[in-house]
């Protein structure tokens, strides 16, 4: 009987650890959440007023890109660009839209031949994006976030 009481006493003293609640460090939780967080995907893409009615995320993205492209193409089409040789190039504009909806050009990638034929192409592209309508920033988990993307602009002058 003495052995049983001793065993029960040891069991009860060591079993108390099983009932203790473990405290979770909030920094550990945050770190774990950040590891599973997909930073390259947003809940909603940046948008214009004209794209508000889009129902799917993909439609919204396409509408946004098409609106920007249309704005650039309209501006470039209104300019009197004279070239000595035919120009056919896909210019890649690397754009950043910050969490306030401000658009910035990070980089313009084009062929050297295009830059030679149209030396002012850089300033024309920058000017074409100055008067875009108000942009509503992308949203990730209910927060407005900065996004970066690439916009291809096809330039064809015969």
Structure report:
This protein has 158 residues and is an alpha+beta fold. The chain is 41% helix and 22% strand. It contains five helices and five strands, in the order H-H-H-E-E-H-H-E-E-E. It has helices spanning 2-19, 26-36, 57-78, 112-117, 121-128; strands at residues 87-97, 103-109, 138-140, 143-145, 147-157. The strands form two sheets. It has a three-stranded antiparallel beta sheet with strand order 2-1-5. The protein has a two-stranded antiparallel ribbon with strand order 3-4. Helix 3 packs across helix 5. It is elongated. The mean pLDDT is 82. This is TonB C-terminal domain-containing protein.
Q: Give the distance, in angstroms, between the N- and C-terminal Cα atoms.
A: 104 Å
Number of strands: 5
Strand content: 15-25%
Which secondary-structure class do the elements indicate?
A: alpha+beta
Low-confidence stretches: none
Sheet with the most strands, sense and barrel status: 3 strands, antiparallel
Q: Write down the overall mean pLDDT.
A: 82
Shape verdict? elongated
